[in-house]
Automatic annotation (TrEMBL):
Species name: Penstemon smallii
Protein name: non-specific serine/threonine protein kinase
Record membrane topology: Single-pass type I membrane protein
Gene Ontology cellular component list: plasma membrane
Cleaved signal peptide residues: 1-20
Lineage: Eukaryota, Viridiplantae, Streptophyta, Embryophyta, Tracheophyta
Main localization of the protein described in the UniProt heading: membrane
Length: 1180
């Protein structure tokens, strides 16, 4: 009876042992291994290291070779000193892999290459990708080009990766896709895997970070990072030699022989690839540090001209830890990978002499760190031009072998003649290439903004320019579809005719032009290739082709009409018009080849103006508005005035755009030689019919019955104006866009709307649309360049003359006396001349004079005053057009106030979003004032805190307001291109239009982030209750500062409650958490709604509010996540909020107030309340 439990235990133990053996029958390699790829035997290298042939390892339990591949040997004689492992290779035109089962730990992986011709495979056809586990080690890699650039016959690539327990190491070789018969292939000569010696760990994990040189930040290198070993150098040797193969650091020396060390004042210069981070590990000598300490030797360690350590720091750390082997630093080499290589400098400087030359310096290592996409890949190096000095040796050798010794004199003579002839030929080619490159070298800006592709990459992307990738053909060359970055991105590749001298100029013109431009309605240039006399441009791929395709090209030869609706056509024209207006007003560029086939359409039918090969910049240093130049363009679109006088103006583009408008309306090309003489040219035929009143007869048959009469009338009118014989009587493109928007509005409403009269503007003058004319607001923006946008709209005039109901919050009455001021003489000039800076920044806004604003506000009467705030008084005004505006009059003329005035002009004028306040104009002469669009429903502050108004805020309106605010903040942070932190998100800065749409205002405190920064250090300004705790305490503002304020705002909107209240001490956030913990979170919803709300929507809003108000900014969601969560599109909601349940991070207002420094006023000596009340009067 007592043996029964023992028997069961024994049986269980045996079963467990059996299962363990069954599940772990895979053998793991514990030692280092060297695999001679393509070999069937074990060989020894010259250094004595044993290499095992992979052909005999196929049956090994720790290695498996998968995929289709061949073993091959060299065709020619081996040039390398060591035949192992360079004599044989494993080669394949398809994917193959090595799967190693290794013991866990950090491993050094060395890949050996000998790019020579192999049986069945040609040299310079190797192009492949190498992956190790999740990491891309090499991509579109050509060993032949690399060896040629390095000037070596064999070389090695060395990497460091971490292997986890029970994780195989899969090394995959994948040839690039090719359609040619002798396509690309992948090969490998040798693979070495060795363990990193103890004490030399490279993966420091999440606990120990490496300092980034020049920044106050750390980089944590863990097992999710791969390293490429770029360089390793010892300046000293141990007394005990480890052999020629090993260096002082315990790692095998690099096989590739390095050139002599260049040391100048103990400075080492090494070239590294652009676009990566590098770990620089500097090793120190214990004896050297001890001697430096005893002899008081001062020295500095410098990386890239920045001091990273001194003897004080190093000796201190050595004394604290008892040793100091090495220090790690991270260097960021910013830029695009295609920019090539840059210097990385490591220096040791001292005013004292060391006993030996290097003092405490023992050596250093440089490692490239994998990027966030797990890639270490860089472009292939460019092959060098053949040097003339290398010619005689191979020419003489080949000639002598051919002629032998039959006639030595003849042989010598032929040799000399051949050498001279070939030298002249080669020198001429070199001279031509250098001359061409010098003439057509891109600017530094173009090189920074455009990616430079190798010809091998282009051939791989298009499968060697396969007909299957053919898109179209024109006078410029051929366009192909292409796949780059391992097929992750589809692009359009334009291959220009290499024989065209004119094509070369157009090639570089397009690169220079597009590198300066950033606009949603202009095609984006990704990069270019100019190797081997090829001229290739790479663009974003436009899924829907060209406008011409949809208007008439696809319809030819078929009975089908164009599928584009009239609204689609109008939107396409509006987008293309905006792009041209951006070219003209933002950069002074004349396109010169506007036509329907140069207007591309993306998958959403958003139009993109393309083909800038003929673009011509205006000469802004001259007074005339034209450019005298040769006539270039496309027949049917060329401006007759340009043809007659060779004077190119912006209005030449306007004329061509008018032709495009007729194409859009008529559905036929600008010129059709199949038709008779009277109908061949579209402009002549269409204008003749229009003048006869036969407009309906020219309309595309697919549009009959679809176009409203008023829309057609406006469209035809603007087309005729664009085609006027006199350029000065043609409208500017900005005015064309406004008229097209009016045509669209009339089509959507199908009501009779009187069209705007088109004002003709001279080329040399840029004027805004007259404020006396009613216009249709644009829903889009025009970008002026990097991080700049121009507001192209003016709000519609208030035609009915009604005075909207006004509200004045009692909280502002207290501060009225603070802002009373005497009138400033209209003749007194008190404002610095900001106009040049405003114009240069592209603030395209009307400027109003003092008299106009004074009249609009009834002499700034108290009856028109609607509040105070920030740095001024706010008045209601009515312009002569009847348009109602809000006029902000500055309270003082201090430098700081004027700077904020200028900042608001430059900032808001470059923003275009339906939930962002629109700046209508400004006054700068006599007195600084700003004119905004008038908000009929005042501010959210009034509607939330006034009990009568709050009852009118139904739940659907509140949710609409929340979503609008979220979209507005998201635009500021992500889509505006300016990375804006508002710093004043609060109820008083949220205005409501006539449809109760939220409008974000109050940009006087706004700031922007630099491109590579996530925070900005600045003084603390804002309103208590909405202030981000981290910003308040540490003075560092970020996007998360606005997200915190947003969270407070959402809770206030949902609850109809202020942040502070006696009914829930200490604050609204703590009260919300209390309800959450009690399971009564929906009790937070405003009682005035009386239960008429969506439980699901309310719960999502409250949860988002709680997440946004986490004290630690890293715990807050991004704006993208906020939007998704509010719409119920992002999961794991309950889990996230539950983790914060009862969190101590919920802010205790007393402790928070005590911890915060006093927020500073934005106006110097003014009371801080001026900042906190900023723009709250904009609520009207």
């Amino acid at each position: 009876m007592q043996t029964f439990p023992f028997s069961i235990a024994l049986l269980a133990l045996c079963l467990h042992t059996t299962l363990s053996l069954g599940t772990n029958n895979r053998a793991y390699l514990e030692r280092d291994i060297s695999v001679n790829c393509g070999s069937i035997a074990t060989s020894a290298a010259l250094n004595g290291r044993k290499w095992i042939g992979d052909a005999q390892l196929k049956s090994a339990s720790w290695l498996s070779i998968k995929g289709s591949s061949k073993i091959s040997s060299l065709i020619h004689k081996l040039i390398s000193d060591d035949p192992v492992p360079h004599k044989t290779a494993r080669v394949s035109s398809s994917r193959f892999s090595y799967d190693f089962h290794l013991s866990p730990g950090q491993k050094i992986l060395r890949l050996h290459f000998n790019p020579s011709p192999y049986k069945g495979f040609k040299k310079f056809k190797d192009l492949f990708t190498v992956e190790a586990g999740p990491f891309i080690l090499l991509s579109n890699f050509s060993a032949s080009l690399t060896a040629r650039a390095l000037g070596v016959s064999t070389f090695t690539k060395e990497f460091c990766i971490s292997i986890e327990e029970n994780q195989p190491l899969n090394i995959v070789f994948s040839p690039a896709i090719s359609s040619s018969q002798d396509g690309t292939y992948a090969f490998i000569n040798g693979i070495e895997i060795s363990s990193v010696p103890e004490g030399l760990t490279y993966f420091r994990g999440a606990d120990l970070g490496a300092q980034v040189v020049g920044r106050n930040s750390m980089v944590y290198i863990d097992n999710n990072t791969a390293l490429e070993i770029i360089h390793r150098l010892n300046v000293k040797r141990d007394s005990v030699s480890l052999g020629d193969e090993f260096d002082m650091l315990g790692i095998r020396a690099t096989v590739l022989k390095q050139k002599a060390i260049e040391i100048n004042n103990l400075t080492w210069k090494r070239f590294v690839d652009v676009g990566f981070r590098y770990l620089v590990r500097i090793h120190f000598c214990e004896l050297g540090l001890k001697m430096a300490e005893t002899r008081n030797v001062m020295f500095k360690v410098i990386v890239n001209e920045m001091i990273v350590d001194s003897e004080i720091d190093l000796i201190k750390e050595r004394n604290e830890n008892g040793y100091l082997w090495y220090r790690d630093y991270v260097v960021v080499i910013k830029g695009r990978k295609q920019e090539g290589r840059r210097d990385l400098l490591i220096s040791l400087q001292s005013d004292n002499e060391f006993i030996d030359r290097y003092g405490p310096f023992k050596g250093f290592e440089i490692f490239k760190l994998s990027n966030p996409d797990n890639s270490l890949a860089s472009p292939n190096p460019l092959p060098p031009v053949m040097a003339v000095r290398d010619l005689p040796s191979w020419i003489t050798r080949d000639l002598l072998s051919l002629l032998g010794s039959r006639n030595v004199i003849a042989t010598v003579a032929v040799t000399i003649i051949s050498i001279v002839s070939i030298m002249v030929h080669e020198l001429r080619k070199i001279w031509e290439v250098n001359l061409t490159e010098e003439e057509t070298k891109p600017s530094a800006r173009a090189e920074r903004h455009c990616r430079r592709f190798s010809l091998a990459e282009i051939r791989s992307a298009t499968q060697n320019f396969s007909n299957a990738f053919f898109i179209g053909k024109g006078g410029f060359g051929i366009v192909y579809k292409g796949l780059i970055d391992n097929g992750r991105e589809t692009v359009a590749i334009k291959r220009l005719k290499s024989s065209s001298r004119q094509g070369k100029r157009e090639f570089w013109t397009e690169i220079e032009t597009l590198s300066e431009l950033r606009h949603k309605n202009l095609v984006s240039l990704i990069g270019y290739c100019n190797e081997y006399r090829e001229m290739i441009l790479v663009y974003d791929y436009m899924t829907c082709g060209t406008l011409a395709d949809h208007l008439y090209k696809h319809a030819r030869g078929s009975d089908k009409d164009s599928s584009l609706t009239w609204k689609q056509r109008l939107n396409i024209c509006i987008g293309a018009g905006r792009g041209l207006d951006y070219l003209h007003t933002g950069h002074g560029i004349i396109h010169r080849d506007v036509k329907s086939s140069n207007i591309l359409l993306d998958e959403n039918f958003i139009s993109k103006v393309s083909d800038f090969g003929l673009a011509k910049p205006e000469d802004r240093n001259k007074l005339q508005s034209h450019v005298s130049t040769k006539v270039k363009g496309t027949h049917g679109y060329i401006d007759p005035y340009y043809v007659r006088f060779s004077k190119l103006t912006r209005k030449s583009d306007t004329y061509a755009f008018g032709v495009v408008l007729l194409e859009v309306l008529c559905g036929r090309p600008a010129m059709d030689r199949r038709l008779g003489e009277d109908e061949c040219f579209l402009t002549k035929w269409a204008q003749n019919r229009i003048n006869k009143g036969e407009v309906e007869q020219i309309v595309d048959s697919s549009l009959i019955g679809e176009i409203s009469a008023n829309s057609l009338k406006v469209f035809v009118g603007i087309a005729k104006s664009c085609l006027h014989d006199e350029p000065k009587k043609r409208p500017a493109m900005g005015q064309v866009v406004l008229q097209l928007e009016l045509a669209l509005a009339q089509q959507e409403t199908r009501k009779d709307v009187i069209p705007n009269q088109i004002t003709n503007v001279a080329d040399e003058t840029t004027l805004p649309v007259s404020p006396e004319q009613p216009t249709v607001a644009s829903s889009e923006s025009i970008e002026l360049g990097k991080n700049q946008r121009v507001n192209t709209e003016l709000p519609p005039a208030n035609k009915d003359g009604r005075k909207p109901k006004m509200y004045k919050s009692p909280r502002f009455w207290v501060w009225d006396a603070l802002w009373k001021r005497g009138k400033v003489s209209r003749n007194e000039e008190v404002v610095p001349n900001f106009l040049p800076e405003i114009y240069e920044a592209g603030a395209k806004l009307p400027e109003y004079d003092f008299a106009t604003i004074e009249a609009a506000t009834n002499q700034f009467s108290d009856s028109n005053m609607i509040g105070h705030g920030g740095y001024g008084t706010l008045y209601k005004g009515v312009l002569l057009t009847g348009q109602m505006v809000a006029v902000k009059r500055l309270s003082q003329n201090s430098r700081q106030v004027l700077d904020e005035f200028k900042r608001e002009i430059l900032l808001i004028s470059n923003l275009q979003h339906r939930n962002i306040i629109k700046l209508i104009g400004y006054c700068i002469h006599g007195e600084p004032m700003l004119l905004y669009e008038f908000m009929e429903n005042g501010s959210l502050h009034t509607h939330i805190y006034d009990e009568a108004q709050r009852r009118l805020l139904h739940w659907d309106v509140r949710f609409k307001i929340i979503m609008g605010i979220v979209r507005g903040i998201s635009y500021l942070q992500q889509d505006s291109g300016m990375k804006i932190i508002h710093r004043g998100i609060q109820t008083s800065n949220i205005l409501l239009d006539i449809q109760m749409n939220p409008i974000i205002s109050g940009f006087g405190l706004a700031t922007t982030l630099e491109d590579d920064h996530s925070v900005v250090e600045t003084r603390v300004v804002g309103t208590m209750g909405y202030l981000d705790p981290e910003y308040c305490i540490y003075g560092t503002a970020s996007f998360m500062s606005d997200i915190y304020s947003l969270g407070i705002l959402i809770l206030e909107i949902v609850g109809g409650k202020r942040f502070y209240s006696r009914s829930y001490d200490p604050n609204l956030v703590a009260y919300a958490w209390k309800l959450w913990n009690e399971g009564n979170i929906l009790h937070l919803v405003d009682e005035s709604i009386e239960g008429a709300f969506s439980d699901e929507e309310a719960l999502r809003c409250i949860q988002v509010g709680l997440l946004c108000t986490q004290q630690n900014r890293h715990h807050r969601p991004t704006m993208t996540s906020v939007c998704k969560m509010l719409l119920g599109e992002e999961l794991s909601f309950e889990t996230i909020v539950a983790s914060c349940k009862g969190n101590a991070e919920c802010i205790d207002v007393v402790n928070f107030m005590n911890a915060c420094p006093e927020p500073t006023s934005s106006h110097g000596s003014e009371a801080s309340v001026a900042t906190f009340e900023y723009d709250e009067t904009m609520q009207r």
